[in-house]
Design goal:
ATP-binding; Beta-Lactamase; 6 domains; six-stranded antiparallel beta sheet; about 45% helix; alpha+beta; 30 strands
């Protein structure tokens, strides 16, 4: 008795391997079925095979049906495992003496309906591996039993059925192999002809080479031209490839296998590329005796590869970021410029990348923070109309938002069906910033013209009111008039002063410019503010002793400082520190590239900083607009900063503002100096600050700042590595830790801020030298509190001299400590 294996998938696979299901009746099987019915004296006998969902009869006596559902088949019970923990199947004869009294079959439609089965006996048909394919069974319409001789005969017949199945399978395989071999030979020759492929046989011991006739089409020569030796064949090979081919053949005698690409020169002097593959055979003592191989023409492939390389080079040389999307929105190509713009490497963009919770390569999930309707709309329009162009707001790998001018083109396959989408992106982030700045300037100019006209009319209205009120004061002496008229005069004067501020913003006050020392203005402001400001505000000044002079109007510059100080006071309702500092600054090309309003030359910088509430990021772009104020109604006109920017621009200067919520605000006023110093002297001073080839790591999320800082340092004998965020900085530092002398690090970056980056770098190297950069001075204090790793602080924007001086100071301190 065989044990049946309880693996349904393997059982079905074994059944299919016999290729017998749904085949025509065959006499050897029918003879065994008739013999079973005769021996057991039953009206019905079947060879039943159990498929996944049905019972199919290969042979049947006394039954018209060809198959039944598997779930009602008696045969299914005969081959299935018992419902027990041991899962041992029954391989003996499965007998049901009376189906109506058996609870398993009493309600079975094969029992209660035609053919009204009452008796069943089946022997499983078991393969040599132990899988039951079905049964040889006998069936009767009345209850009954089988004697032992009938059971043994039924088992013997079942064994004969399996023998027939095995013989049938073996014969089918033999026929298949014979037919396949003949067809393979035919197909091989057809394939050789179609693929421009030929075979060769090299007898290494005799050095004789046998060629197939296909070589004639490959080389354009008759077989007799090749000769019968390997050396004769080499004469057809391109002279530059002969030595490499010989070396490859020599290596194959040791490595057993041979594969090499080479060129041949045809009789018409055309050059073709061939590839040859072969296998070495050895004798009993391990000596190479023979090599068999094939050779075929790959000229077309080589030409295509060359064309692809040229096209890829052109794409990579393009300044535009080029992407190709497949029909599912996945990136299938990413140019070098696209890698530089978005920060994703080609392998990251094309291959699946892990994002903690999901795996994706869809372009909209890679380049947008979330699924984008803009992207979907562009994709739909391109698919429908063939092209689309417009602006898209995308994200880089570091999380920085950029704006691109995007042009989409639909590419079709040979059947004119959508194949892919070519996307050409041009970075217009800086252009859009310039446009926004221009629009703000135009808006301010328009508001200025409007304000100027209104102010002019108000002056015409207020002048007679003020003159009349002052005249009435000399003519009306009653107590009531004397009490009301001063109120009228004072309010008319306030209106006139307000109009004066509007005119100052709109067209600038044509004051008299003289050579000024701003130190005196700052000290005067300090004296006034010390007396009038609340005691909770600490006032501090830091003025360079040899501060340069400026050409300007003292009254107007006094108003600039006063307005900035009043705003700083209002920003510190609970008290704080107000600081005014002044220093000299040479703006070079490095600095000018970091600040769009700056021009190369000599400036003084007046900084007014507070430790107040800070300015929300969403309104910082609007603070210089006239009549824009965050103060409560009646507490501000919104003209203070508008007047500041108007006066400073009237002095050919510019203003930068830096703010951080909860930490304070810093206004820097840049005024051109009247000093006539020579710029050449400035650059001569820089020569003494040059480096000694030290490697500096520059970390900043602004690409323009990274690039100009890198160029400036390299111009003065430093080597530079760059990183766009803290994560990239850590990876770069870990790789070049032994070489990097100092890290120049921005304090405010996406993904990983400067403070976290500093602490992590200090864990890698406690002696690391870090120079922090920020537009906000308060970050200098924060950076220094992180520990001894922070050696200096650079306030953005900075010039080349400040950069080199800072690096030299850090280097000098390090040398003294050693």
């Amino acid at each position: 008795m065989k044990t049946l294996l309880n693996n349904e998938a393997a059982r079905l696979e074994a059944l299919l391997s016999y290729q017998i299901l749904d085949t025509e009746p065959e006499e050897p099987f029918d003879a065994l079925t008739r013999l079973a019915a005769y021996i057991c004296q039953t009206p019905i006998a079947l060879i039943s095979l159990i498929d996944a969902n049905r019972q199919w009869f290969k042979s049947k006596i006394g039954l018209h049906a060809t198959q039944t559902p598997r779930n009602i088949a008696f045969c299914n019970h005969a081959i299935c495992a018992k419902r027990s923990s041991e899962a041992i199947a029954q391989s003996d004869v499965f007998i049901v003496t009376d189906a109506l009294t058996d609870e398993r079959f009493a309600t079975n439609p094969l029992v209660t309906c035609d053919p009204y089965i009452r008796f069943y006996a089946g022997v499983p048909l078991i393969t040599s591996q132990g899988y039951a394919l079905g049964t040889l069974c006998v069936i009767d319409y009345v209850p009954r039993e089988l004697d032992s001789q009938q059971i043994e005969a039924l088992q013997a017949l079942a064994s004969q059925v399996m023998t027939q199945l095995e013989q049938r399978c073996t014969f089918a395989q033999l026929v298949y192999r014979t037919t396949t071999h003949r067809r393979n030979e035919e197909r091989l020759q057809l394939a050789l002809n179609a693929a421009q492929m030929a075979c060769w046989d090299w007898d290494i011991q005799t050095n004789k080479v046998t060629w197939t006739k296909d070589h004639e089409s490959l080389f354009g020569l008759a077989l007799s031209s090749f000769g019968s030796t390997y050396e004769a064949f080499l004469q057809c090979v391109h002279p530059q490839d002969r030595k490499l081919l010989e070396q490859a053949m020599a290596r194959s005698l040791e490595e057993r296998y041979y594969e090499h690409e080479f060129r041949v020169v045809l009789p018409d002097n055309s050059i073709h590329w061939l590839v040859s593959k072969g296998e070495v055979f050895f004798n009993d003592i391990g000596k190479a005796t023979r090599m068999l191989g094939v050779v075929w023409d790959i000229t077309a492939r080589k030409q295509q590869e060359q064309q692809i390389r040229e096209e890829a080079t052109l794409l990579n040389e393009s300044q535009d970021a080029i992407l190709v999307l497949d029909t599912n929105g996945h990136i299938s190509f990413c140019s070098k410029s696209a890698e530089d713009l978005f920060g994703w490497s080609q392998s990251e963009a094309i291959s699946p990348w892990l994002d903690a919770t999901r795996i994706t390569t869809k372009a909209d999930e890679l380049l947008f923070e979330q699924a984008s309707s803009e992207f979907a709309q562009a994709q739909n329009i391109t698919t429908e109309h063939g092209s689309w162009h417009g602006e898209l707001h995308l994200l880089t790998k570091s999380g920085k938002e950029i704006i691109v001018q995007s042009r989409w083109t639909l590419l079709l396959d040979e059947e004119q069906k959508p194949k892919s989408i070519l996307i050409v992106n041009t970075d217009i982030t800086d252009k859009k910033k310039l446009e926004a700045q221009l629009l703000r300037t135009q808006r301010l100019e328009s508001i200025g013209r409007l304000s100027s006209g209104i102010a002019h009319d108000l002056n015409n209205i207020l002048t007679p009111i003020l003159l009349t009120a002052q005249l009435l004061q000399t003519q009306l002496y009653d107590q009531r008039s004397q009490r009301l008229l001063p109120i009228l005069v004072n309010n008319a004067k306030r209106g006139a002063n307000l109009v004066k501020q509007v005119l100052s913003f709109a067209r600038g006050i044509e004051g008299k410019h003289t050579i000024l020392q701003t130190r005196h203005l700052i000290l005067e402001i300090q004296q006034i503010l010390t007396e009038v400001f609340p005691k909770s505000i600490e006032f501090d000044t830091d003025i360079l002793p040899d501060l340069w002079t400026v050409s300007g109007d003292a009254t107007q510059l006094h108003q600039v400082l006063m307005n900035l100080c009043i705003n700083a006071c209002d920003a510190m309702p609970e008290g704080g520190t107000l600081n005014i500092s002044a220093e000299n600054l040479v703006i070079d090309e490095h600095y000018a590239l970091m600040n769009i309003d700056a021009k190369v030359g000599y400036y003084i910088v007046i900084t007014v900083s507070d430790t107040g509430l800070g300015i929300p990021p969403e309104i910082i772009e609007r603070i210089f607009e006239p009549f824009f104020t965050t103060k409560e109604l009646g507490l501000g006109t919104g003209l203070g900063l508008s007047t500041v920017i108007g006066i400073v621009k009237n002095h050919a200067g510019f203003v930068n503002v830096y703010s951080e919520m909860g930490k304070g605000t810093e206004f820097k006023v840049y005024l051109p100096s009247s000093e006539k110093s020579e710029m050449q002297q400035h650059f001569q001073d820089l020569e003494g600050l040059a480096g000694d080839g030290e490697l500096i790591l520059v970390v900043d999320d602004e690409a323009a700042i990274r690039e100009i800082t890198k160029l400036s340092l390299e111009a003065y004998n430093y080597r530079v590595l760059t990183a766009s965020d803290g994560v990239e900085a850590l990876a770069t530092y870990a790789q070049h830790q032994q070489e990097i002398s100092a890290v120049l690090l921005d304090m405010m970056m996406p993904n990983m801020d400067g403070l976290t980056t500093i602490r992590t770098l200090q864990k890698i190297n406690s002696c690391i030298k870090i120079i922090t950069m920020s537009g906000l001075v308060s970050n200098a204090r924060i950076a220094k509190e992180t520990g001894i790793g922070v050696k200096a602080f650079l306030s953005k924007p900075f010039n080349t001299k400040e950069l080199l001086q800072t690096l030299n100071a850090v280097k000098s301190r390090n040398q003294r400590n050693q």
